[in-house]
Design a protein that fits this description.
By secondary structure, the chain is mostly helical. It has one domain (39-304). The chain has helices at 10-46, 51-72, 85-107, 110-117, 120-131, 138-155, 166-185, 192-214, 223-247, 252-255, 261-274, 280-308.
Length: 311
Amino acid sequence: MSRKGVQADPDLDAATLRRANLHGSLWMIAAMALFAAEDAFIKVAAKSIPVGQILIIFGLGGALVFAGVALVHKEPLFNANVVSRPMRIRAVFEITGRLFYVLAIAAIPLSAVTVILQATPIVVVTGAALIFGERVGWRRWLAIFTGLAGVIVIIQPGTESFSALSLLAVIGMIGFAGRDLASRAAPRALSTTLLGLYGFLSIVVAGMLYSLWQMAPIVWPSAPVCLALLGTIVAGVVAYSCLMKAMRTGEVSAVTPFRYTRILFGIGLGVALFGETLSGAMIAGSCLIVLSGLFILRRGQQVKRSTNVPR
């Protein structure tokens, strides 16, 4: 034994890291499955009640849960950081993303909406380069354009298969990307609980604005629709919690790729519950988006490691 004590066992450290990566990956897969279930519940409810009403109920339910968590931890529900400029921008993008994404779920196949949403990380990297000045090399730019080409392949503009309603999903995806970028600039003093609380309150605002614009009468939901709405709230809140757990367990580079399992769950639910079919364009576009997203993630980790190497 050396004077410094027992040296750390590298095999033990590696085994611990592998377990952490495995647990983080399982949390991520659970989150993606629950997010897909949330989308399916929304699609079921949208057949019976207006979209604005769904957003209001979903937002209120999620906000109450996060407010309760904050109170249990004796965390104030409001502070000056909540109304900071990044948080105001985040709210605008959250409202836009949620509204158009739910409209897309109600109007077009769930599988198509799910696949288009997976382009969000690609748009986030683009925004980080253009807005925050993050360095993006030519390889990642090529991957970005490849992923965006995948979106174009799916929506097929200029062809007989094109539906303008698919643009709802594109706008929703851009809204979520803007929300994620604004979250990076949000004050670090804000906890994930408060971010969740005000994110769900933004959904309430989105529902109220759309209800005022649509002027649709309030519909009293039937028992099955009430269960679907309850499922939406539970799935959304638990999915968010699983996502936060995943991002805090293991290595980000090992856990994040499992975000793309949402495509499998979304397509599976779309086919099994709503009788959707997959076209060749859908499969090809999905492959382009996933492969480009995985490459961007892997290349970003390589660049980060190389810049951290002492010279």
